[in-house]
Amino acid sequence: MASTSNVITEPLPREMQQHTYAIMRRVEESHWWFAGRRQIIKSFLERLCRDLNAHNGGRRRPPLNILDVGCGTGANLEMLAQFGEARGVDVSAEALSFCRARGLENVKQGAAEALPYEDNSFDLVTGLDVVEHLDDDLAGLKEMRRVVRPGGHALLFVPAFMFLWGVQDDISNHRRRYTLAQLKRVVREAGFEVERATYVNVSFFAPILFGRMLMRAFRIRPASENNITIGFLNGLLGKILGAESLALRYLNFPFGVSIICVARRIE
């Protein structure tokens, strides 16, 4: 048997595969997964703002100064702008060109592990399906902590469970999927206090698991899983996923396709 000890493996690119950005820009405003995810994230941001106002004696705080790390093609930036001044950073020049084409100018090119911003610049930093792309997720989270002000927050959204690994993970150049315990541990190591973390997308856990098992068994390789939907059901599927935000007001899910986490920078 030939030795493999001298085989040089090229590191994965930081960006997603190039064809995926155009697909994302085309579908992210309407595809059920993107739409449902935004509704869940928005509900967590609304609760965070209510809590911040409550801690401010019930007085409405100024709009948040927000940084979206890994802003992609811009749909999340548009949603975040409802809560304050939202800026974006992404390692991909192509992704940023899509942002600028839709009128989003407050974007910069940069890596999550070396953010091009000063210390303590933001009230809120978001990483929405970003941390799983990083070779060193701890370094990226420490950078997020550096640029958020003391007492400020990070909101993270990551994929869950390695056994759910699928084509989208490959073409997105993911390094890992997380368990809740793994994400909490690295967030705390970075200097944050976890205020809340829960699995999300329990609604489609079984279909996604079954679908990815079938794709592995039959070697099905679509250009992107974001292309996969049932047209006439797309709106309904998005509403089903988004409706999880109602249940998440009162409880945490024991499993799901993704994880959402709200953490506060320790003083």
The proportion of residues in beta strands is 15-25%
Q: Count up the helices.
A: 10
Terminal Cα span: 55 Å
Q: Could you give the order of strands across the largest sheet?
A: 3-2-1-4-5-7-6
CATH architecture: 3-Layer(aba) Sandwich
**N-to-C SSE series?**
HHEHEHEEHEHHEHHHE
Instruction: State the shape.
Output: globular
Catalogue the unreliable spans.
Answer: 1-9
Rg: 18 Å
Report the major sheet.
Answer: 7 strands, mixed
CATH superfamily: Vaccinia Virus protein VP39
Structural class: alpha/beta
CATH topology type: Rossmann fold
**Helix content range:** 25-40%
Q: What is the class in the CATH system?
A: Alpha Beta
Mean of all residue-level pLDDT scores = 92
Which assembly state applies to the chains in this document?
A: single chain
Counting structural domains, the number is 1
Per DSSP E runs of 2 or more residues, the count of β-strands stands at 7
Task: Describe the fold and architecture.
This protein has helices spanning 19-27, 32-55, 75-80, 93-101, 137-147, 167-171, 180-189, 205-217, 234-242, 244-247, and strands at residues 64-69, 84-90, 107-109, 122-128, 148-159, 192-200, 258-265. By secondary structure, it is of the alpha/beta class. It is globular and about 55 Å long. The N and C termini lie far apart (55 Å).
